[in-house]
Amino acid sequence: MARRSFSLLKALTKPTTSFSLTPIPTSRSVTYMPRPGDGTPRAVTLIPGDGIGPLVTNAVEQVMQAMHAPVYFEKYEVHGDMNRIPEEVIESIKKNKVCLKGGLRTPVGGGVSSLNVSLRKELDLYASLVNCFNLPGLPTRHENVDIVVIRENTEGEYAGLEHEVVPGVVESLKVITKFCSERIAKYAFEYAYLNNRKTVTAVHKANIMKLADGLFLESCREVAKKYPSIKYTEIIVDNCCMQLVSKPEQFDVMVTPNLYGNLVANTAAGIAGGTGVMPGGNVGADYAVFEQGASAGNVGKEKMVELKKANPVALLLSSAMMLRHLQFPSFADRLETAVKHVISEGKCRTKDLGGDSTTQEVVDAVIANLD
């Protein structure tokens, strides 16, 4: 009996070239177990917007339908040349709590206010978040870029308080309050804590605007003391721009006043692959509006609209953020994985990413890669 056992052990441990392990599947290994009622479709307000907006929002609609995402859209026509956002649109967003929108064209000069800004103020969407990161397979000048820009969304230079003192002299007021500064700082540190981020950097110009930016900085410092596990740093905005284009990988989460955040987010987006691939959203205590993270003038590119070659990736990734916000993480993961696979493969890319594909060709490729 002992001899037989030894022979069996010897046979089992003998090296063999014909033996091979069965590969373990890497696709969904654990099923998503929803609570009863989790599959009930959620209503989302949809604003196609201007320029490339209808193209890219239609791309999202197609992909959502293809993967049977539990959302449906209430669509409203809103354009940047309107005097105000129609009341029924505001009511729809307040009812649904969530909105997906394309860009709204903002007239330059002429005293016409931006409807993008008006919507954020109306709904108190005080935090803008733009995630700027390298996508696998997309060549960029810098690697290891993964920056989240969190921008105060309701005051600063965007307060819109301007008047002509005397002919030829205009005064524009920058408003900074302790309340808004503290809540955006708290949001940035909460985001960093919940997403396992290591550093929060406050961007400012307190060396010149000692009272306004000084108040913002003071608020960030007070909030930082409550999060000892997260490293807190500060940087002056002009040095920040220089550091971004030279060594962007040093930044993690950045918290900024309103105007600086717009500039920093678009700069970081350009470094990480372009505005066409950067997702973003605006969130407050009650409502959230998801849109392309960094626009940098994409809304007004009429040639892109005529040729139907707008890049839908940014809004597709923003809609994945929306799905996660709606607590549909498995759908968000599927969508992000499909988009990243298409980018990595490199066969379907719009002009801004070095290809010549149409919006629809990119959409078809994403749908084909849905798990």
Automatic annotation (TrEMBL):
GO MF, one example: metal ion binding
Any single GO BP term: isocitrate metabolic process
Any one Gene Ontology cellular component term annotated for this protein: mitochondrion
SMART domains: Iso_dh (SM01329)
InterPro entries: Isocitrate_DH_NAD, IsoPropMal-DH-like_dom
Isopropylmalate dehydrogenase-like domain segment(s): 43-366
Subcellular location: Mitochondrion
Gene3D superfamilies linked to this entry: Isopropylmalate Dehydrogenase
Predominant localisation class: mitochondrion
Assigned keywords, A-Z: Magnesium, Manganese, Metal-binding, Mitochondrion, NAD, Oxidoreductase, Transit peptide, Tricarboxylic acid cycle
Family that this chain belongs to: Belongs to the isocitrate and isopropylmalate dehydrogenases family.
PANTHER family xref list: DECARBOXYLATING DEHYDROGENASES-ISOCITRATE, ISOPROPYLMALATE, TARTRATE, ISOCITRATE DEHYDROGENASE [NAD] REGULATORY SUBUNIT 1, MITOCHONDRIAL-RELATED
Functional description taken from the UniProt entry: Performs an essential role in the oxidative function of the citric acid cycle.
Name this polypeptide is given: Isopropylmalate dehydrogenase-like domain-containing protein
Organism: Populus deltoides (Eastern poplar)
